[in-house]
Design a protein that fits this description.
With 318 residues, this protein is α/β, with parallel strands linked by helices. Helix content is 35%, strand content 15%. Helix 5 runs parallel beside helix 7.
């Protein structure tokens, strides 16, 4: 029996035993509970292929699918003073920053880049909700100012993707002061006659909603995005009334005139190309990789019989 116990049984178990699957190969949809293969989910821009639920996406992943060929260049952002208030709760603020940087792989909660969409040069800024809830910090204020200044310098429109839970509590009043700073940055764009387009993603709340996120020339939101200033429970307790169903969701705000469009993530790129070129007074984008040739560069019509360019006057005489 030893050879059966020592060889045959382990061999059978190795063949029919269930293999362990790495946890990072699958993601579960928060809305419908469907298990989604990570590669398919990434190709779908982190939108559930079963129910259409829009999951969180980092600015870098978004920009890779957003810009022509996935090519963009980062815009430098001035680094503010670290931990100006020497704030500490359960952890020191610098320790929280380092943990968020290690988790997200980014320096801060805002990424500013420049590139082309549909052969249209733009400046883009995106908030990363995975970095301390996308909270508005002094760095985020500096990033929006840098984006606005770069847009004015290059004469490009600015497209901003918002995703935040409000101002960063570890910076106190200095975080709240980014509301007027970013409002001034938006005003600079308007005075320069440059388009400012905001795409509100889930969630966009607090002081971000009360400042730069609601000041766009065009306001677009992703489906079912939570958008508001205070939480629904706080509002109900304040006004002592039951809020309507879907309150503070993108579709509700669209019906009540707070938004211009609610657009699925897969369609955002083409819609932003169209809107941007329209606001710049340019012709519609041409489908394909290359723009249409200018009329003056078109070759002359070649006559089939002689191989020479056709002459309208000789044709008339004939």
């Amino acid at each position: 029996m030893n050879w059966i116990s020592n060889y045959v049984r382990p061999r059978i178990n190795s063949i029919f035993s269930r293999r362990e699957v790495p946890e990072n190969l699958w993601s579960k949809c928060d809305e419908c509970g469907t298990m989604l293969f990570h590669r398919e989910l990434k190709e779908a821009l982190y939108v559930c292929t079963s129910c259409g639920h829009h999951m969180g996406i980092t600015p870098r992943d978004r920009f890779k699918a957003f810009f022509d060929g996935g090519v963009f260049t980062e815009v430098a952002v001035p680094q503010p003073v670290e931990d100006p208030l020497k704030f500490r709760d359960q952890k020191k603020y610098p320790d929280r920053l380092r943990a968020a940087q290690k988790k997200s792989g980014e320096r801060e909660a805002m990424l500013v880049v420049e590139g082309e969409i549909g052969r249209t040069p733009i400046i883009a800024a995106g908030q990363d909700f995975s970095f301390m809830g996308g909270s508005m910090s002094m760095y985020v204020g500096n990033a929006i100012l840098a984006a606005a200044e770069r847009a004015i310098e290059t004469g490009r429109p600015l497209i901003l993707f918002s995703a935040a839970g409000g101002a960063r509590m570890q910076e106190g009043i200095l975080g709240l002061m980014q509301m007027p700073r970013t409002t001034i940055a938006v005003q600079m764009l308007k005075e320069a006659g440059l388009p400012y387009i905001v795409v509100l993603t889930h969630p966009t709340t607090g002081g971000v909603t009360a400042s730069y996120a609601m000041l766009g020339d065009v306001q677009i939101a992703e489906p079912n995005a939570l958008i508001g200033f205070a939480g629904a429970r706080v509002i109900e307790q304040t006004i002592r009334e039951k809020l309507p169903e879907g309150f503070q969701r993108a579709e509700y705000l669209l019906d009540h005139g707070m938004l211009d469009r609610v657009t699925p993530r897969a369609q955002l790129r083409e819609e932003l190309i169209t809107i941007t070129r329209m606001l710049l007074g340019e012709s519609p984008a041409v489908a394909g990789d290359l723009p249409a040739p200018a009329e003056e560069t078109l070759p002359d019509v070649v006559a089939e019989d002689t191989g020479q360019a056709a002459d309208p006057e000789q044709d008339a005489k004939a």
